[in-house]
Amino acid sequence: MSGSIVLVLRIISALVLFGFLGWALYYLYREVNRQSVSLANRRVPSISILVRQDAGRPILKHFSQPEIILGRDPGSDIPLMDDTASARHAQLSYHHSQWWLEDLASTNGTILNDALITMPTVITSGDEIRCGETHMTITLSENVIIEPTLRLGKRS
Question: What's this model's pTM, rounded to 2 decimal places?
Answer without folding.
Answer: 0.64
